[in-house]
Amino acid sequence: MFSVIKAASLLLCVISVCRGRSLCISSYYQAGNECCPKCSPGEYVRADCSDESSTQCNPCDDGTFNDGYSRLKRCLNCTSCAPDSGLRIARPCTRTLDAVCEPLEGFFCIKSKGLYCETAEKHRQCKPGQYIRDNGTALTDTVCTDCSAGTFSDGTFTTCRPHTQCENLLREGTALADAECGEGVSSINVTVVIVVVLLVVFLCTGISAALYFRKKKCLSGKCVTVPTQGEENIMIQPPV
Q1: What is the domain extent for residue 56?
Q2: Confidence grade of residue 15 (pLDDT, cut at 50, 70, 90)
Protein backbone atom coordinates (compact mmCIF):
# COMPACT_ATOMS: atom_id res chain seq x y z
CA MET A 1 0.00 0.00 0.00
CA PHE A 2 2.80 2.42 0.93
CA SER A 3 4.57 1.64 -2.34
CA VAL A 4 1.47 2.57 -4.30
CA ILE A 5 1.14 5.94 -2.49
CA LYS A 6 4.84 6.72 -2.99
CA ALA A 7 4.61 5.86 -6.68
CA ALA A 8 1.55 8.08 -7.07
CA SER A 9 3.29 10.99 -5.33
CA LEU A 10 6.35 10.56 -7.54
CA LEU A 11 4.15 10.52 -10.63
CA LEU A 12 2.39 13.71 -9.47
CA CYS A 13 5.75 15.43 -8.95
CA VAL A 14 6.93 14.41 -12.42
CA ILE A 15 3.71 15.74 -13.97
CA SER A 16 4.05 19.05 -12.05
CA VAL A 17 7.66 19.54 -13.20
CA CYS A 18 6.73 18.70 -16.78
CA ARG A 19 4.00 21.34 -16.68
CA GLY A 20 6.50 23.93 -15.45
CA ARG A 21 5.06 24.25 -11.98
CA SER A 22 7.48 24.89 -9.13
CA LEU A 23 7.43 22.51 -6.20
CA CYS A 24 8.90 25.17 -3.86
CA ILE A 25 6.93 27.13 -1.28
CA SER A 26 6.17 30.82 -1.95
CA SER A 27 9.24 32.23 -0.15
CA TYR A 28 11.52 30.04 -2.29
CA TYR A 29 12.11 29.68 -6.00
CA GLN A 30 13.25 26.74 -8.06
CA ALA A 31 16.73 26.82 -9.60
CA GLY A 32 17.40 23.52 -11.31
CA ASN A 33 16.65 20.85 -8.76
CA GLU A 34 17.06 23.23 -5.83
CA CYS A 35 14.54 25.34 -3.94
CA CYS A 36 16.42 28.56 -3.22
CA PRO A 37 15.38 31.28 -0.75
CA LYS A 38 14.14 34.45 -2.47
CA CYS A 39 16.00 37.70 -1.86
CA SER A 40 14.43 40.26 0.46
CA PRO A 41 12.85 43.57 -0.70
CA GLY A 42 15.60 45.99 -1.74
CA GLU A 43 17.84 43.14 -3.00
CA TYR A 44 18.40 41.07 -6.14
CA VAL A 45 19.82 37.57 -6.73
CA ARG A 46 23.54 37.65 -7.46
CA ALA A 47 23.88 33.84 -7.45
CA ASP A 48 21.42 30.99 -7.05
CA CYS A 49 21.75 28.56 -4.18
CA SER A 50 23.49 25.22 -4.51
CA ASP A 51 23.97 22.08 -2.47
CA GLU A 52 26.71 23.88 -0.57
CA SER A 53 25.45 27.50 -0.28
CA SER A 54 22.30 29.54 0.00
CA THR A 55 21.12 32.24 -2.40
CA GLN A 56 23.54 35.18 -2.63
CA CYS A 57 21.77 38.56 -2.64
CA ASN A 58 23.04 42.10 -3.31
CA PRO A 59 21.41 45.47 -2.47
CA CYS A 60 19.68 47.27 -5.33
CA ASP A 61 21.80 49.85 -7.12
CA ASP A 62 20.94 53.56 -7.03
CA GLY A 63 17.99 54.33 -9.27
CA THR A 64 16.54 50.81 -8.91
CA PHE A 65 14.21 49.10 -6.46
CA ASN A 66 12.61 45.79 -5.50
CA ASP A 67 9.44 45.99 -3.42
CA GLY A 68 9.00 42.30 -2.59
CA TYR A 69 10.68 38.94 -2.03
CA SER A 70 11.81 37.79 -5.46
CA ARG A 71 14.21 35.85 -7.64
CA LEU A 72 15.02 38.88 -9.81
CA LYS A 73 18.57 38.95 -11.14
CA ARG A 74 18.43 42.76 -11.22
CA CYS A 75 16.26 45.34 -9.53
CA LEU A 76 13.62 47.34 -11.38
CA ASN A 77 14.31 50.85 -12.67
CA CYS A 78 12.75 53.66 -10.66
CA THR A 79 9.97 55.66 -12.31
CA SER A 80 11.17 58.99 -13.69
CA CYS A 81 9.01 61.99 -12.78
CA ALA A 82 10.00 64.04 -15.83
CA PRO A 83 9.09 67.76 -15.88
CA ASP A 84 8.58 67.55 -19.66
CA SER A 85 5.75 65.14 -18.86
CA GLY A 86 4.29 67.68 -16.42
CA LEU A 87 5.39 65.69 -13.38
CA ARG A 88 7.37 66.15 -10.19
CA ILE A 89 8.41 63.77 -7.40
CA ALA A 90 5.82 63.27 -4.68
CA ARG A 91 7.75 60.42 -3.06
CA PRO A 92 11.37 59.62 -3.95
CA CYS A 93 12.45 56.16 -5.05
CA THR A 94 14.12 53.92 -2.47
CA ARG A 95 15.54 50.40 -2.67
CA THR A 96 12.21 48.97 -1.54
CA LEU A 97 9.70 51.44 -3.03
CA ASP A 98 9.26 53.00 -6.46
CA ALA A 99 9.00 56.77 -6.89
CA VAL A 100 5.55 58.37 -6.86
CA CYS A 101 4.85 61.25 -9.26
CA GLU A 102 2.33 64.07 -9.10
CA PRO A 103 1.41 66.87 -11.53
CA LEU A 104 3.42 70.08 -11.52
CA GLU A 105 1.73 73.27 -10.36
CA GLY A 106 -0.63 74.34 -13.14
CA PHE A 107 -0.94 70.79 -14.54
CA PHE A 108 -3.47 67.98 -14.11
CA CYS A 109 -3.14 64.21 -14.47
CA ILE A 110 -4.39 62.68 -17.73
CA LYS A 111 -2.97 59.17 -17.25
CA SER A 112 -2.69 57.41 -13.92
CA LYS A 113 -1.71 54.03 -12.58
CA GLY A 114 -3.67 53.37 -9.44
CA LEU A 115 -3.27 56.47 -7.30
CA TYR A 116 -0.08 57.54 -9.08
CA CYS A 117 0.15 59.88 -12.05
CA GLU A 118 2.07 58.81 -15.16
CA THR A 119 1.40 61.77 -17.49
CA ALA A 120 0.10 65.29 -16.85
CA GLU A 121 -1.08 68.15 -19.05
CA LYS A 122 -1.05 71.92 -18.53
CA HIS A 123 -4.32 73.54 -17.47
CA ARG A 124 -6.11 75.32 -20.29
CA GLN A 125 -5.94 79.12 -20.39
CA CYS A 126 -9.29 80.87 -20.72
CA LYS A 127 -9.48 83.20 -23.73
CA PRO A 128 -10.38 86.90 -23.59
CA GLY A 129 -14.16 87.04 -23.47
CA GLN A 130 -14.26 84.07 -21.08
CA TYR A 131 -14.01 83.81 -17.31
CA ILE A 132 -12.66 81.00 -15.11
CA ARG A 133 -15.73 79.15 -13.83
CA ASP A 134 -13.74 76.39 -12.10
CA ASN A 135 -10.02 76.51 -11.35
CA GLY A 136 -8.00 73.51 -12.45
CA THR A 137 -6.80 70.97 -9.89
CA ALA A 138 -4.29 68.12 -9.93
CA LEU A 139 -7.08 65.89 -11.28
CA THR A 140 -9.26 68.23 -13.38
CA ASP A 141 -8.75 70.86 -16.06
CA THR A 142 -9.81 74.52 -15.86
CA VAL A 143 -13.42 75.19 -16.92
CA CYS A 144 -14.04 78.38 -18.96
CA THR A 145 -17.38 80.08 -19.70
CA ASP A 146 -18.24 82.93 -22.11
CA CYS A 147 -19.14 86.35 -20.69
CA SER A 148 -22.74 87.54 -20.99
CA ALA A 149 -23.80 90.76 -22.76
CA GLY A 150 -22.65 93.95 -21.04
CA THR A 151 -19.69 92.29 -19.33
CA PHE A 152 -16.08 91.52 -20.22
CA SER A 153 -13.03 89.48 -19.15
CA ASP A 154 -9.42 89.31 -20.30
CA GLY A 155 -9.38 85.56 -19.63
CA THR A 156 -7.92 85.74 -16.11
CA PHE A 157 -11.04 86.90 -14.24
CA THR A 158 -13.06 84.49 -12.09
CA THR A 159 -16.19 86.50 -12.95
CA CYS A 160 -16.96 88.79 -15.87
CA ARG A 161 -16.99 92.51 -15.00
CA PRO A 162 -19.68 94.99 -16.12
CA HIS A 163 -18.71 97.66 -18.64
CA THR A 164 -17.94 101.13 -17.25
CA GLN A 165 -20.79 103.60 -17.77
CA CYS A 166 -19.22 106.67 -19.44
CA GLU A 167 -20.54 110.25 -19.67
CA ASN A 168 -18.29 110.77 -22.67
CA LEU A 169 -18.03 107.39 -24.46
CA LEU A 170 -15.10 106.99 -26.86
CA ARG A 171 -15.41 103.26 -27.54
CA GLU A 172 -18.07 100.77 -26.57
CA GLY A 173 -17.16 97.81 -24.39
CA THR A 174 -16.94 94.29 -25.80
CA ALA A 175 -16.72 90.82 -24.28
CA LEU A 176 -12.93 91.19 -24.50
CA ALA A 177 -12.42 94.72 -23.12
CA ASP A 178 -14.05 97.46 -21.06
CA ALA A 179 -15.63 100.59 -22.49
CA GLU A 180 -13.28 103.52 -23.10
CA CYS A 181 -14.32 106.88 -21.70
CA GLY A 182 -13.22 110.41 -22.75
CA GLU A 183 -12.20 113.10 -20.32
CA GLY A 184 -15.14 115.33 -19.40
CA VAL A 185 -14.86 118.89 -18.04
CA SER A 186 -14.53 118.51 -14.30
CA SER A 187 -15.75 121.01 -11.70
CA ILE A 188 -12.14 121.52 -10.58
CA ASN A 189 -11.09 122.62 -14.07
CA VAL A 190 -14.04 125.02 -14.27
CA THR A 191 -13.10 126.57 -10.92
CA VAL A 192 -9.49 127.07 -12.03
CA VAL A 193 -10.61 128.79 -15.25
CA ILE A 194 -12.94 131.13 -13.34
CA VAL A 195 -10.22 132.09 -10.83
CA VAL A 196 -7.73 132.83 -13.61
CA VAL A 197 -10.26 134.97 -15.50
CA LEU A 198 -11.12 136.94 -12.35
CA LEU A 199 -7.44 137.56 -11.61
CA VAL A 200 -6.90 138.86 -15.13
CA VAL A 201 -9.96 141.13 -14.84
CA PHE A 202 -8.82 142.50 -11.45
CA LEU A 203 -5.31 143.07 -12.77
CA CYS A 204 -6.54 144.90 -15.86
CA THR A 205 -8.93 146.97 -13.75
CA GLY A 206 -6.14 147.91 -11.34
CA ILE A 207 -3.81 148.97 -14.14
CA SER A 208 -6.56 151.01 -15.81
CA ALA A 209 -7.42 152.74 -12.52
CA ALA A 210 -3.77 153.60 -11.83
CA LEU A 211 -3.35 155.14 -15.28
CA TYR A 212 -6.59 157.08 -14.90
CA PHE A 213 -5.64 158.64 -11.54
CA ARG A 214 -2.14 159.46 -12.78
CA LYS A 215 -3.57 161.32 -15.76
CA LYS A 216 -6.08 163.15 -13.57
CA LYS A 217 -3.31 164.24 -11.18
CA CYS A 218 -1.29 165.73 -14.04
CA LEU A 219 -4.28 167.71 -15.30
CA SER A 220 -4.78 169.20 -11.81
CA GLY A 221 -1.30 170.83 -11.96
CA LYS A 222 0.55 168.44 -9.74
CA CYS A 223 2.28 166.50 -12.46
CA VAL A 224 6.08 166.59 -12.69
CA THR A 225 7.70 165.48 -15.87
CA VAL A 226 11.01 163.71 -15.46
CA PRO A 227 13.27 164.85 -18.33
CA THR A 228 15.33 162.54 -20.43
CA GLN A 229 19.12 162.87 -20.59
CA GLY A 230 20.25 166.29 -21.99
CA GLU A 231 16.96 168.02 -21.32
CA GLU A 232 16.13 170.56 -18.61
CA ASN A 233 13.58 169.94 -15.96
CA ILE A 234 10.28 171.52 -16.91
CA MET A 235 7.62 172.08 -14.28
CA ILE A 236 4.16 172.39 -15.61
CA GLN A 237 2.36 175.14 -13.74
CA PRO A 238 -1.32 175.30 -13.50
CA PRO A 239 -3.04 178.19 -15.34
CA VAL A 240 -3.91 181.41 -13.35
Answers
A1: 20-77
A2: very low
